[in-house]
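Reader question, answered in our methods column.
A reader sent in the components of a multi-part assembly and asked whether the whole thing could be modeled at once rather than chain by chain. We filled in our standard form and ran it. Here is what they sent:
COMPLEX SIZE: three components
ENTRIES:
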Amino acid sequence: MRKYLARRLMLVIPTVLGVTMIIFIAMRLLPGDPLVAIFGLEGARRMTPEQRANLEQALGLRDPVVVQYGKWLRDIGTGEFGKSLLRGDSVTQFVLRRGPITLEIAVLATLLSWMIGFPVGIISALRPNTRMDYAGRFFSILFVAIPGFWLGLVAVLTLILWFDYKAPILPVYPWENPWQNLQMVAGPAVVMGLGFGGFVARIVRSSLLEVIQEDYVRTARAKGVHEQLVIARHALRNAILPVITWSSLFLGVALGGSVAIEKAFGVPGLGLTMIDAILDRDLPVVQNLVLLYVVVFVVVNLITDLSYAWLDPRIRYD
Amino acid sequence: MVPAGSKTSVARKPLEGGLKWLRTFARRYPLSAYWGIVAVLTILLGILAPWVSPDDPLRPNVLVRAQEPSWKHLLGTDFIGRDMLSRIIHGTTWSLFVAVTSVLLGTTFGAVWAVASAFFGGTFDLVGERVVEVLLSFPPILLALLLASGLGASTWTVILSIAATRVAYGTRIIRSQALAVKELPYVEAARSLGASSWRIIFFHLAPQCVGIYLILVTTSLGIAIVLEATLGFLGAGIPPPTPTWGNMLGDAASMLIPKWHLVVFPGAAIVITVLAFNQLGDGLRDAFDPKLRGTNI
Amino acid sequence: MKWRLRKTSGFLGLLVAVVLVLAIAVGPAAMPALAAAPAPTAQPGEPFYMKAIDHDKAKRGGTLRLAAHGPPSMFDIYASGTIANVGAQSPMYDLLVRQDPRDPKLPIVPSLATSWTISSDGMTYTFNLRKGVKFHDGTDFSAEDVKATFDRIVFPPANLLSLRSLPIKETVVLDRHTVQMKLSEPRDSYTFLALLAGGWNVITSKKALDKYKGDLKQVDNFPGTGPFMYKSRTTESWEMVRNPNYWNPYAPYVDRIVHVWLKAWTPELAAALLGGQVDWAMWLDPSAYQKVKANPNMSGVLWLAPNLSSWIGFNTDRAPLNDSRVRRALHLALDQDALSKITQQFVPTAQLMDYLPPPYGKSYEELMTEYPNAAGTREKAIADAKKLMADAGYPNGIAKTFNFVVRESPQNRQLAAYAQAEWERLLGVKTRLDVVQVSAMVDRQVAGTFDMISHAACLGGADLGATMRMCYSINKATGKKSDSNFTNFKNAEFDKLLDQFSIELAPQRKAQLGRQLNQILNNEMPNTGLTTDGRAYGWYNYVKGLPKVGGNSDYNTYQWDFVWLDK
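And here is the structure of the entire assembly that came back:
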């Protein structure tokens, strides 16, 4: 186990490095003048070539590409995550203020997906080919197909037209005002939770069905152990593994894919910040936020793999 | 994404005989077959759009801006008075074109890479594995968004961006499949008889992976359609005046209270299409190799 | 009764004596041009102080929450052209003179300058400054600070930007409370004073400017004399508190201001206002504005910015767009009123306009009754467009596919798609839409790599001549075309008339010159989709003191010192 852990940890480093390279290249590809972000269109146009040269030099934009890359890596290493060109705030401030909201949404969505997916999947597996099974399966495939941001748009439209709903605009944390915080995160969390819940239901159902036909369950049944216990102890344990794997994927997708959903709901999370930054060419913010997302994703995957290995001894020795 | 270290079995050879196979398929997986027909109809709609669509999707009429559905415009009109029904029909063409092209490009490139990786092994394989992991570390929408914004808005950059997210998807499975096949006795035999590398790859390794490849393609289509729609919604998609479903949703969302018909209909089109391809993919996967069911490719 | 008469006659006698002494001491050269500077509203004997319109009923205290477009990307207000700076930073500062925000006609009133005199040739302005004013950091305010500020604005250091174009040759300190400005060229007095009253020309201390060498980009709290002081700033908002030592004994009325960052024209902005999370909002989208007007507890106002705005510009350097017949044909092919109506779904750009505002150009009503803009004369307009194309040599359309650069925004997308479809259908002119984010626009504009470009606007101010120069003429310092002259417009007669227009002091002659300039632009048609630039504001009725008729805006200064909360 320790060897596996060590090996997996070591693999993280080149992966993250590779990620930084891709992000950096993509950012340098982005056409667009960062000085417009700082000075506005008028200001950027009115600059003389000398002023422009001076300003770019001060921002480090005139260094050779490799040097800029190196500087970025060094900054990350020292915890200096840069300042937004567009907003005069540091990336760290953004993450501290808005990160919790996005994280909260992601976690709530994952929890919701279990709360929805497990019951639906179990019922479907226990009562295959009944009406409940068909309903459950239809629900899962439907919500897997619906794009989250569209569901968000429809939800917002309905809420505005029928309930006169107005979303809070400033980040409110659960420890500040739980009710307002709930209002803010409920929409995106439910929309994503439904989508993931569909996935989870499918996985649970198919894992359970697989196991229910396996020998050891049949043996356990033959022995007369109470059916619930049989399921609980043998079948579910098998189902948990893929669900955990996929939940880590969901978490990553929630963090990244929430970008569109946050925009649909207007939630002040990191996703909205990221989208604005990419479209506005706010280089420091994009570079560091995307890196953050990816690192979180990688870490979550790592934890998943490790827990997978811990739960299923067969895997460790691969 | 398949957890590192899981095993897969060699796929059964696909059932021979076109029509016979279809009939068997329809009997065993009726839901999938039904949605398969929907998928085929959608493709047909996309191909026949210019003939089926009642109006020119690009023709504005400023006198009927943003009107709700009426007899003249069954699904209403958009902000400059273009007929929404025509736009949605043509949107099928565009969305499918982008989705199919990007998926084929991405999956094929990834599959070829995976097979080569399995065959040649060594450093090539090692480096390849790392690159795949790097690509998989990106949430797909972020990767697509970065590339689409970076390369500038155009149809081909959107296709390339989405293709990039599909490259790493499934390469692990194809790679392990190819690895397993590589060890089979008849492949060993072919090699000892002096068959060239290319021959082995094309005639022995690749065919065994076709099943998985098809499954990957069909299940990726839904994701690609949603990715394209998301890019359009976020403003990084195919430039106007091209009618794509994502663009329509993006336009609709730019008002405080979006017009309901501009939100509901393009979205419904996406849902139906994605549903159809997902179900088809599910059925195909069950048909080719039920053991893959749990892994949720 | 007798006692009062004696007092009055004594006072009058004193007044006469003072005037005589002044007249002798100062001499005929400095006789004030009283007609040009409208008298500030003040009690006789008392210096001018800004107050709420209904000052006697005003309550004190409370927190004013404002939805502001922002946040600013940096804090050097002199280098800024955006509302993000002037909107948020103004309350902490004062200007030399100010446009009275309570009066839609925006007369010039004293602020840090209590009175001023203008030389008869209009080239020298002498300002008397308020005494006993302190900056928030305790420093005393004096003429040195005014000079340092305007030197920073008019003569920025080599590595710094200044976006203001003030025709000031020199600022001179006469004594501690008197400062003099010498102009580089004549301007009529209202224009010049209104230029000084532009919201970005806030006065800061010489000490601060020296300390930071004029570079205030990272300094969010450089010292001001204003009614509010810096309290704290986060990624979401900026909080300021009442200045207890403000030189105005009557103002401000509220205790705190909080600017909340909400981007203009977005659904989030509207939701925040309509949901009661802010008390006042700037730059609402049209549907939100309608809701505000329909709400009995809210008020709204639509302000027309003095920008020269058009939705589409033609690159007049590139063939065949260098032929004015082709440009006029493309202009006629589009239903001009429809262009405004399309964009009004997103932005309350009020309506179709002429190149220049009245009295130099035609008003919306006049335009709508005349061909070719009225919807009723579309057929004739299209026929004329086709004829012009035929005259220019393109009866069957043009083979080339034009490159149409579109600045990313919801309204531009729709508009460009509309124009593209109509041009192809009616004239056989094909275009390719190139949607570009704002940050990439500068490259395209400067390089001129486009045939058509969307939303060319010249941000105007009090000086229409300067605005026109930016949009359609050359930069006198460099000799090259002006920064905002996207259309590469070159017309010698226009330039000559513009020079005369800028320095003309007599209103009638100025109007005549202006109309000639407008006519040249209409003949040449370097743009199409001419429009006014409307900005919609909304607020709750418990915010008192804001005029309900458009006049002021956040580009002039909203120091919020004339507003109180009835809560």
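What stands out: The mean pLDDT of chain A is 78. The two ends of chain A are 11 Å apart (CA to CA).
Send us your own complexes using the same form.
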